[in-house]
Amino acid sequence: MLKKKLLVVTLSMGLLVGGVFVFNQKAFADDLTKAGKHEGHEKMSKEQRVEQISSKVSTYLGIPQAEVQKLAQDSKIGMKNVVFGAVIAKKTNQTLPQAIAEKDKLGNWKQVMAAHKLEWKDIHPEMKKIAPHFGKKLGFIKNPTLMYEVLATYTGESTSTLKGLNEKYKVHPKGLMKASVLSKASGKKLEDVLKLKTSDNKWKDVATKLNVDKQKVDAAKKELFTKLRAEKKAQEPEQKSKNPQGSNQ
After folding, report:
1. CA dist., res. 68 & res. 54, Å (int)
2. Closest residue by Cα to residue 14 from 147, 191, 213, 125
3. Rounded CA separation 20/17 (Å)
């Protein structure tokens, strides 16, 4: 029961606090670089976060910190990809630049994991060694079924269509959620929104191209979060009945 509540909290943080759908000058930016604001951490500047995490990645991989910082400060890479890339690099015996290049080639980390037959359980513990808050914020991708079910209701698309779009445009599940919010707020088709996202831009750039009104984005974001929370709550009684407390295996 506690784990289920934590999943809801994780979704809440990812959607409302982590900057996933916040629409301002930093909207749709790499929200995982802001994770230092959560889990009891004091607010740090971007430079301090880069310094802290790059030091841990440097130790984790045994490479110069300057090399890590250079990648983290690249606007097309960012800290999230450096952390994820570090774990992939170690698991696959690649260099960090090679792991990041593979992600660019295949489209996203999900595809990289599939190519190397890696699962989230292989990645998550290692991410926690580098940045525990990153690992927790990415935890919701362990339940893609919930995401697809909610997005199907939210967008009006079937789950099979959503999965097809996710594979076609090679977006991270979280990216599909961002695209869905922008689609709802702008009135554009989901696929038309996905077409605007490339490896050379960010979701905030897509939002700018769509010229989306801030209030509409806020309303669309709130609607999606409400559906996510309601669906998760609806599943809890069923899960509880399948796993009654005190039952013996």
Report:
1. 6
2. 147
3. 8
